[in-house]
Amino acid sequence: MGGRLTLEELRALAEAGEIDTVLSAQIDMQGRLMGKRFHVDFFLDNAWKESRSCSYLQATDLEMTTVEGYQSVNWVTGYGDYVMRPDLATLRRVPWLEATALVICDVLDPKTLEEVPHSPRALLKKQLKRLEAMGLRAMTASELEFFMFRESYEEAEASAFQKLNTFSAYNGDYNIFQSSKEEDVMRAIRNGLAGTDVPVEATKGEADAGQGEINVRYSDALTMADRHAIIKNAVKEIAWQKGRAITFMAKWDTDHAGNSSHIHQSLTTLSGEPVFFDPDAEHGMSKTMRAYVAGLLAHSREITYFLAPYVNSYKRFTAGTFAPTRVLWSLDNRTAGYRLCGENGKAIRIECRIGGADLNPHLAFAALIAAGIDGIEKDLPLEEVFLGDAYSADDRADRADRDVPKTLREAIAALEGSAMLREAFGEEVIEHYLHSARWEQHEADRIVTDFDRRRGFERA
């Protein structure tokens, strides 16, 4: 897989006139790439070591509001700088942008030069270090769903996002002919990502008109999280270049399906041997895997905020739409919150189906891994596998902890009471993200919507 660069290769490409710009970007709380475009000469002289960015990038909402009330960053602290330190292992070409390379940065406190604990990449790395101390490594893959529209982003905004036309007129799930109509965009996405060391396995039509999915090769969790962030940025940029708009909203329209981000997980030894597989065990699930999955189930409600971070995220959880409503594990069953894949084989893994395409991959992976670690450390027993339609399940239905939270408020309450996450992430980190969640709910409660006007303008 091409696309990765060493510093020496970048220097040679710069001298040959093939690269003149380097994007130096951190991952923000929403999972976006945020940073600067450096002239390649300055990057090679200085910025490859470090650069600076405003600390508010790790304390804003989707609209870049300077939200008051954060303890780590506020008007009293003066919104000073954080250090952006490039992780040179992530340096790569960006084929869909002219003469451009990209590097992902860690975010450091300028006084201590320690990673800012609430920054998403630091949070994930902390959980991976916990696994490493146990002799384990996390492997993940996230599947991203999205809708593509005939309108451009500019046209969509000019119409106040009303009466948008999905690129296809009918459900094209797995339909080759239908997906051929959008191949101009999808081929550019596949080839562009392949050229930047994001190994795309396939794209396909998904379960509604205009919906698509992109599948990427399994990888270690940090690499996959970085790739996930790059994918979302790339898909939007390439679609924009082609005059189309794409959304990763969890639920962009009442009558259309939601956008998921299913997350596949397994563990290996540090040398790469699969840990989840036991050929002599039921379903091929090792003792470690059973405990890990038990941890996911035990803490699923507590970690839901990191899988569904916005008010809109919870509108996706509707029965009969392939989005889960129950915290159950099952075999190859798309109605359950957790699906066992690769049964009785070395590729055995657990798929979390709760997350939406609006999640931050670094935060989501970190939360899932923390829950799994807790299951392993406490040797939690795994309940019996659920069989059947999880949407209409009667057994275990009387337990409130079996329901995926129905609202952001529910998820906030579950996060607030999570002793596991407070220990795994740290008290200050959890309070940081609780503040972010409460602000999101506050804004949704405050702002008058089109729904309000349509329902009450005349009738109320």
Automatic annotation (TrEMBL):
Its required cofactor(s), as named, are:
Mg(2+)
Residues covered by the GS catalytic domain: 120-460
Keywords noted in UniProt = ATP-binding, Ligase, Nitrogen fixation, Nucleotide-binding
Superkingdom assignment: Bacteria
| Pfam family for this entry, one | Gln-synt_C
Cite the PROSITE patterns for this sequence. Answer: GS_BETA_GRASP, GS_CATALYTIC
Gene Ontology terms: biological process: biogenic amine catabolic process; biogenic amine metabolic process; glutamine biosynthetic process
Instruction: Report which residue ranges the record marks as coiled coil.
Output: none
Q: Which residues form the GS beta-grasp domain?
A: 17-112
- Family that this chain belongs to: Belongs to the glutamine synthetase family.
What the protein does comes down to: Catalyzes the ATP-dependent biosynthesis of glutamine from glutamate and ammonia.
- The name of this protein is Glutamine synthetase
Organism from which the protein derives:
Afifella marina DSM 2698
Q: What is the lineage of its organism?
A: Bacteria, Pseudomonadati, Pseudomonadota, Alphaproteobacteria, Hyphomicrobiales
